[in-house]
TrEMBL record:
InterPro entries: F-box-like_dom_sf (IPR036047), F-box_dom (IPR001810), Quinoprotein_ADH-like_sf (IPR011047). It holds the Pfam family F-box-like. Residues 1-49 form the F-box domain. Residues 631-656 have a biased composition (Acidic residues). Residues 584-619, 631-672 are annotated as: Disordered. It comes from Trametes coccinea (strain BRFM310) (Pycnoporus coccineus). Residues 604-619 have a biased composition (Low complexity). It comes from the Eukaryota. The lineage of its organism: Eukaryota, Fungi, Dikarya, Basidiomycota, Agaricomycotina. This is F-box domain-containing protein.
Length: 697
């Protein structure tokens, strides 16, 4: 029998087209002649690998077109398909905590009151609505404000949707405004140009355009396209180009935003349930998804029939349930940097003891861009994922065999009940925020080049029964990672939006957690200190208490810190782990399941639920006083810091400053009067946009 290396080159290339990058690396390192074959056919081999791992949309695309269509910075200068795959593979590793460092950015202006976020990575835009009204467009790279609609025009807590240049936000009542990116406004390839905005929209557009006549205009500017009035009050809405879905309590409506035409009307979206609210809606090219209090329902857009109904209030939806073990994240809490991401183990569990005693309802649902894979979230933080959900709808596989249930956390200290905050689903990756943390879940790591499918089937990292996988279990090799910097339950409960792009995660978080201000807010007690500092503070407090009780130095009994405060295990210094390739071979490391557990940063879907739901208000102004010792030539006067030109600085006399200082806790340890002081006024607390960028550096 002839060996593989003597087969015709065309046949060998066809075989290699089905191998993931891990196997390609192994084949290449087998022998010198195989490496030579790879060098001679490198473009063809790695072009097929890019298609296998969804790094390109089709095999018919050429490299320049692939770079342009993805429009990602780390691809701009790639010279060949090998480098293209190498950088994309690095991106996948960064998302699961086994790659290089992530970076962070922040988007926000006075007042800090971000409510919703939308992102356009192609045009480099970050769009926000606000608690106090208004809409802002930021430049993704520079974070500068490109364009704004006033708070007098866009209502408070407005929900917004965005895709393919169309921006939609709601008014109070039954109206939805549709605006379009001005650089695309005259593009007629998406359909007929039939704009019918109201006069008030035109007036606001003219005012916004005159306020933002920057050199880069009209980059980031929008222009009114039309106004859509719904037959009834919309409980929730969702835009997936080119269709806008709006759901009332009993009916749902779908419009084509290009023409403003109503294309679908669904009856009885609550099914047989006599009552209940609408929590979330989603749509694909073929289906409409409705999350109500009683159930998750899927309707066919073709015949308007309900094809799938999954009731709420069940303790279990799947035979396979994976619990999240947060120990690695808890060990890094208080020590991690804003961009650090940590791989989290998953543990199969047969018990329902982790679940809420009060049953949960479906709070959110998303479907993949292909329209096949479904991800739903329950209010008690559970996630139900189904690969090719039509298998269940057609009755080919029972729900309990097809679905994978995960998300409940293994209790860290006694009772540890958590609840859902936000869910989004893009590029085969789920972004999740619960009261336990911020998570990135890669559903199919074999598709993302992270795990060799053959090795994964042998190793079965989560210890799942093979019979369950053979029976049709969805996503048995799922990977989950957490950002431990954000494990503050109080703040997690306030998050109002989370968005995931191919390279970045955006979410609403309080500005006081920015690296340049977090130490101050820890000193004044508004943010918990790191675990090691908490232990030291408790020990110091115990010693001080003993001294005040009259005990001498030899007699004072320090508090038993171990019983006074339970602290998380503290990991050692974090670092970036690199695994080198084989000497003499120009290949990159493409590990399987054995990967480092964390990475360190180098710098500090839209909720389609009820559009009227408010969020906690923020945006309080904080004044930080820095005390500088007097020099021989100094005068007793204020030295104004001019870093923030937008702030108004008022003179404060010594008595007012004494009163201000008296309000600070003792641990602030600030001296009084003996020196002149600098005053820094800036809006330092309130919700802004935190962005964690996993792009290869």
């Amino acid at each position: 029998m002839p060996s593989l290396d003597v087969l015709p080159a065309e046949l060998v290339l066809r075989i290699l087209a089905y191998l993931p990058v891990q196997s390609l690396r192994s084949v290449r390192l087998t022998a010198r002649r195989w490496n030579q074959f790879f060098v001679m056919n490198e473009s063809t081999i790695y072009h097929h690998a890019a298609f296998l791992h969804d790094f390109v949309d089709s095999l018919g695309i050429f490299l320049p077109e692939a770079r342009e269509s993805r429009n990602l910075k780390f691809l701009k200068d790639v010279p060949d398909w090998y480098t293209y795959c190498k950088r994309y593979h690095q991106l996948q590793k960064n998302w699961v905590g086994s790659g290089k460092a992530a970076t962070t950015k922040f988007y926000g202006r006075n007042p800090y009151d971000v409510h919703r976020i939308k992102v356009d990575e192609k045009h480099g835009l970050v769009i926000t609505t606000h608690e106090f009204g208004g809409l802002t467009v930021f430049d993704m790279d520079t974070t500068e404000v490109l364009w704004k609609l006033s708070s007098a025009y866009v209502r408070r807590y407005a929900h917004c949707e965005y895709e393919n240049g169309f921006l939609i936000f709601d008014r109070i009542g039954v109206s939805k405004e549709v605006w379009r990116l001005e650089t695309l406004y005259r593009d007629t390839t998406d359909g007929p140009h039939v704009a019918a905005p109201e006069a008030s929209q035109i007036t606001e557009w003219q005012a916004a355009s005159s306020r933002h006549r920057w050199p880069r205009a009209p980059h980031g500017h929008f222009r009114p396209w039309r106004l859509i009035n719904t037959p009834e009050f919309g409980r929730a809405y969702r835009f997936v180009y080119p269709c806008l879905l709006v759901s009332g309590l009993r009916k749902a409506y779908v419009w084509d935003v290009r023409t403003g035409q109503l294309v679908l009307e669904l009856e009885n979206v609550q099914g047989d349930s006599p009552a209940g609210d609408i929590n979330y809606v989603e749509l694909s090219a073929s289906h409409v998804f409705i999350c109500s209090s009683s159930a998750l329902r899927v309707f066919s857009r073709e015949n308007k029939a309900m094809i799938l109904e999954i009731p709420s209030y069940q303790l279990a939806y799947s035979d396979i349930r994976l619990a999240v073990k947060r120990d690695p994240a808890m060990a890094r809490h208080g020590l991690a940097t804003p961009g650090e991401i940590v791989r989290i183990p998953l543990e199969p569990t047969d018990t329902t003891a982790l679940y809420s005693a009060s049953y949960a309802e479906f709070s959110a649902v998303h479907v993949s861009r292909s329209g096949k894979d479904l991800v739903a979230q329950l209010s008690d933080s559970r996630i139900i994922s189904i690969r090719d959900f039509m298998r269940v709808a057609r009755g080919e596989v029972p729900l309990n065999k097809a679905a994978l249930e995960l998300g409940k956390t293994v209790p860290y200290r006694g009772v540890d009940e958590h609840f859902s905050i936000y869910l989004c689903f893009e590029y085969g990756r789920i972004g999740v925020i619960t009261t336990s943390g911020v998570y990135a879940i890669t559903l199919d790591p074999t598709r993302h080049s992270l795990v060799d499918p053959y090795l994964a089937s042998l190793q079965n990292a989560h210890g799942l029964p093979q019979r369950a996988i053979d029976a049709g279990l969805s996503f048995p090799h799922v990977l989950i990672a957490s950002l431990p910097y954000y494990q503050d339950r109080r703040q997690l409960a306030k998050v109002t939006c989370l968005q995931v792009t191919e390279t970045k995660m955006f979410f609403v978080w309080d500005a006081m957690y920015k690296p340049d201000t977090i130490d101050f807010f820890r000193r004044v007690g508004m943010i918990d200190p790191p675990p090691s500092e908490a232990v030291a503070a408790m020990a110091g407090a115990a010693a001080a208490a003993g001294a005040r009780a009259g005990a001498g130095p030899a007699q004072a009994q320090p508090m038993n810190v171990e019983h006074a405060v339970q602290t998380e295990p503290v990991a050692g210094p974090s670092g970036v782990h690199h695994q080198g390739g084989v000497t003499g071979h120009p290949v990159w490391n493409a590990p399987g399941t054995n990967a480092p557990r964390h990475q360190t940063a180098t710098s500090g879907g839209p909720v389609a639920g009820p559009s009227t739901a408010p969020a906690p208000a923020g945006g309080n102004e904080m004044t930080i006083i820095e005390f500088v010792p007097l020099g021989d030539d100094d005068e007793d006067e204020w030295d104004e810091d001019e870093e923030d030109d937008d702030s108004d600085e008022d003179e404060i006399d010594d008595q007012e400053m004494l009163e201000h200082d008296a309000d600070l806790p003792p641990e602030a340890n600030l001296p009084l009067i003996n020196g002149h002081r600098r005053e820094q006024n800036f809006v330092s607390a309130g919700p802004i946009v935190f962005c964690v960028d996993f792009s290869p550096v």
